[in-house]
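Appendix B. Worked example

We walk through a single record from start to finish. Start with the input: the chain for Hydrogenase maturation protease, Nonomuraea guangzhouensis, length 260.
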Amino acid sequence: MTATDDFWARMERRGPDTVIVDGTTLGAGSRVRLRPRSRADVFDLALDGRVAVVESVEQDEAGGIHLAVVLEDDPGRDLGEAKLPGHRFFYSAEEVEPIVADSRTARVLVAGIGNIFLGDDGFGVEVARRLSAEPLPPGVDVVDFGIRGMDLAYALQRDYDLVIFVDAAPRGHAPGTLTVLEPAEPEAGVPMETHGMDPVRVLRLAAELGRIPPRVLVVACEPATVMTGAPDEDVRVELSEPVRAALGPALETVRSLVET
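Next comes the structure step. The output line below is what the pipeline stores for this chain.
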């Protein structure tokens, strides 16, 4: 084996899933307070004392352990969880303080999905946009995933107790009809699909990646028109009247599900 081969073999080794800091086991989803040491750049000064969530535990070539974290109150937190720079930071185990709560706050993800250029398919995106402007209980994240199916599947790997998909789905009802569904768990061994944003495909992809949250619900709205995105279709950025009228009831439904 050459030196180059040995380097890449070391880089491909899987690091530990958890690390113990001050007697507390930290892993993906753990809350910590940042306490940077021996550095004084602008990010360290700005982030000192901030609360962050561990995204992953990483190990470098020399065997050093680092925690990849995202800020708990970062509006672009989903970008950090997708491993994009600027929203994801690295600290050693000595530079974080574990936050141990007496009782853990349940974490909830409300995921708006759909294509805003396909008329009623943008229903879930609009619900997420409106809901994100409201004050929400602690532990509730609202994210407009649009058509980013892979990002959503990775988000489901976090320690969410409940995930609520909000989507437009034709089920044979009158346009604007809302339905709360609990999708069946994906079958084991089914090939992974990385295209498409319907909840079943996303859950199948999440299962292949390693985790499905313990409870998943879908708030579905019956569209008035179903567009496929074919080249000969016109772009339509407005919701139909029945679907637009369902936005208010949909927000009430999601709020009630979050609170239960």
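Two observations about the output. Residues 108-259 form a domain with the Rossmann fold fold (CATH 3.40.50.1450). The two ends are 57 Å apart (CA to CA).
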